[in-house]
């Protein structure tokens, strides 16, 4: 896959069994966007960190976001950044407006529901504890994203059995091809 990729882990970061970690190990050029405090993320600070990482990219990168980072991408898209990205794969978006949303995360509510100015795919599970399938579908519609429902997949992370997740990597490849045309 010939795309510049930035991965964006959710709250608490993605551990060694997470698909993002597996993908990064196979693709050493891909970079995880660092955050100062994974346990107590601040949206405004993280938006600035994401913008700095995009600025350091060779070309418009593809963002690969999980959970809380999906909301981060929507907030970044509404920021006053003059930078652009190629697209975004948004997996298991956490609902900042829901009671299940981690209280440690600051500044992510309300969910940004404006159309994203780049191609995107939202991947969601029917039994995710951080977002209902209806809300995930509503996010995809509001963001202008292709919606992919993968059934009972929990939070689509290592704990849910999604370590390597080749189906997700295939979706990323499709997005990469779409933006490379």
From TrEMBL:
<keyword id="KW-0378">Hydrolase</keyword>
<dbReference type="Pfam" id="PF06821">
    <property type="entry name" value="Ser_hydrolase"/>
</dbReference>
<protein>
    <submittedName>
        <fullName>Alpha/beta hydrolase</fullName>
    </submittedName>
</protein>
<dbReference type="InterPro" id="IPR029058">
    <property type="entry name" value="AB_hydrolase_fold"/>
</dbReference>
<dbReference type="InterPro" id="IPR010662">
    <property type="entry name" value="RBBP9/YdeN"/>
</dbReference>
<dbReference type="GO" id="GO:0016787">
    <property type="term" value="F:hydrolase activity"/>
</dbReference>
